[in-house]
Amino acid sequence: MPTLMPRSKKLLLCFISLIVIFFAGAVIDLACGPEPDPYDYYVSFFRNNVQKNDGYRSFYFNGYLFLNDQTEQTSESYINAKEWAKYIGYDVKAEDVGYIFYGLDRKTDSIYFRTHSNSEKLLPDSLRENQFIKALDKNKSALAYFRMIKETEPFVTRSFDEWKVAPKNGSAYHAFALACLKQGQKQKDRFLKLRYFYQAQRLLRYGGYPQEASDVYDKYIKEFPSASHIKGWALSIQAGAEQYCGHKEKAALLFAQVFANYPERRVQAYRDYHAIKVPAENLIKMASGKREKAFIYAINGFHNPHIGLASLKKVYNTDPKSELVSLLLVREINKIEEGYLTPRINGSKYYGSIGYWNHAQYDSVKDNFVTYIPKLRAFCDQIAKQGQYAEPALGNLASAYLSWIQGNTKKGFESIDSLKSKKIGTKLYDQEQFIRLLLLSQSITKLDDSTENVLLPSLTWLDKKVKSEIHLKKPFQDGWGDYDFKYFAPSSRDFYIKVLAPIYLKQQDTAKAALCILRGEKTIIPTGEWDVNKPYGFDMPAFWQNYLRPVHIRTIVGWQKGRNKSPYMRLLMSEINKKMMYSIDHIWGTACLREHKYNTAVKMFSRIPHVKKPKKKDDYWSEVYAFLPVDPFVESLNDYPQRYLHIDKPGYTQLTFAKTMARLQVKVKSDPRNSAKYYFKIATGLYNISYHGPAWYFSSYRWAAADVGRKPIYYYDTDYIQTRSAEKYYLKARQLSSDLEFKARCTFMAAKCRQKRVVHPPYPDYYDYSNEKELDKQYKIYDRKVDLYQEKFQRNIYFTDLQQNYSTTKFYKLAVNECSYLRDFLSPEPIKTPTKLRVIVIDKNTSH
């Protein structure tokens, strides 16, 4: 009897739609590559940092996030420490200052700055030897400044929400601010004078006196002759004060100025600017100079996640030499890569997973991009022709790349060949080489020895670039920083997997396609990290695990062992080392198990060093794949719960399983009197290494609940999902036996195998949850299909055979008692699943 799990229909279809979106795409996309992260979720061959200044990394395009990076790209604390080190002299380093400013615990900090006199003996050695401390002892004015700001520190270290309202002890803020202002007026040292004024402004602003803070800025800081970044921080506070006083347009303009001139406050200024929501046209009237106007247009352009030339053209027409032109142009290219190129390469139908929530289907979005790309390319040609931008070659490269995306190879080569006589920077040169590689691959109709040699120089260049990035230190502790700094590795992976491999697959050269996929993934996961936590075979690309057959692997191994490899093949296979060969042997042996070539499987598994697997598995889904011991030759009436051996028993491995199956293949011929028994054991072994058995990992590298009842997609699914060979051998065993009880058991096991051929109907392909009428219609259609599925599942031809020919056996009575489907078959009316409750059918006879 099926077990039903009730849940609302809307929730069901939401869940189903997510599954459909996740699994949408071509085989090449499903079969390889790690899961995407926020910095690497779309195919990109155009670098987002081609401009000279890397201080805008937070504003590179990222459709998943409000900002590509939430942190400031320049450290305010380091800038402050650097200014102090230069001011204090005595060869003091910024690191010495930074440690004293930001690295001391409260106790040590208090000992030095609040009780300095006669406290030298209390200081730890690390402070006594600090060069900044030594220099500070010689500058009494600087030390006095420090002691004063340490007194004010508790007032300026508040939580974010606390800044929304004036503090209750505003008078204390005011008193400290006036003290700082007085010291600033008295101070002759210009470095300290500016800082006293800044502290006064800051305390007045945070203390709830925005107008007085604004007056301090206008009178003492605004025109103060200094290049110190303190002026930028004061400008940021002034912008906040103007906003607090209701002067929104002036505040937004000041935040735009902070954004433009002070990279250590750029992200925060960007957030504050957009929080005010002032029309850009109003600010342009107030702006002074083309640079300031360009930044206003750019800030608004960075905020737009959708395609559009408006901001880019305004920046270019206002200040064509600005690097903002490059930033906005590359953002538009990246949007095309995300919204058009990636779905086209991956074969994705729906856009729900890439940020275009206002579009339901692929075609509507695709049409927008098809219309937009020529417009952007025309603008790129304009940049290249007019030569006003600092590096007009960017226009040629962008135009060539867009031509490649459109499939116009001739136009692409024309754009990029026009650069031959021009001198360009390193970043643009690298971009040119990659675009040439893309155009060359697009111009090739068939990959053979000749055309592979055409690609070789570009691939060799790319290989060197990838290797130069391998040892880059991760800039962030969260682990995502690699993709923000390593430009060639992700693009190289995508080229091999998304561009080169499909060409080989189209030529039906599966072996070389597999090498491209392996090499592509190796660019992201270096050799030393390839198999840290996974046993052999489980560390290989999914394409290798699911699509390669013994004939393909034999070809690859032959190439690897060959002495006369071409330079192209040496490059393609250069990452395959000795340890990886063990993984290749494991996949070869597994593929032989799938094709029932047991002697070859024994040979492959015997070449792999023994790896002792843990006997106890605490986490079934852990990456180490520590499986419980099993005996795959013990049949079970029900698939669930699975039967495992006691943890102290060794169980079978793929090697011992292959040896046993090889012996059984010989036995059925050498011992014909007992051949029925041998065929039954072979059938049971095949069943138990299928999806439905406890030893599924002997024939598959993945197990997913969604696999039950699906259509075959891999070459081995006829056995892994549908258990056809097991059914054949159970019937063969029944045919060769005269024992009625044994024949009944064979018939029932054949019935279990036959059930696995019934394909579960696909879930409703409908996503407009606001349309209740259409939603109910789709759901009712799905209900009827599920009823038909249940009926097919129930009306098993072997159940009829059991009832007619074996109803008198003891096994029949046992089967009726154990199997709900057999009881349903014998009942006078078929079991219908209630519409309101149906979500997923969990059958103890067919699933884990």
Describe it for me?
- The chain is an all-alpha fold and 848 residues long.
- The chain is 59% helix and 0% strand.
- The chain has 40 helices and 2 strands.
- A two-stranded antiparallel sheet has the order 1-2.
- Helix 10 packs antiparallel against helix 11 and helix 32 runs antiparallel to helix 33 (675-688).
- Mean pLDDT is 84; it is low at 1-36, 350-360, 474-481, 614-625 and 830-848.
The whole-angstrom Rg is: 35 Å
Question: Strand pairing plus helix content: what structural class?
Answer: mainly alpha
Percent of residues in helices comes to 55-70%
Q: Identify low-pLDDT runs.
A: 1-36, 350-360, 474-481, 614-625, 830-848
The amount of beta strand, in percent, is under 5%
Q: Number of helical segments?
A: 40
Given the C-alpha coordinates, what overall shape results?
elongated
Q: How are the strands of the largest sheet arranged?
A: 1-2
The largest β sheet comes out as: 2 strands, antiparallel
Number of strands: 2
Give the integer mean of the pLDDT values: 84
End-to-end separation in angstroms reads 16 Å
Key features?
848 residues, mainly alpha, 2 strands, disordered N terminus, 59% helix
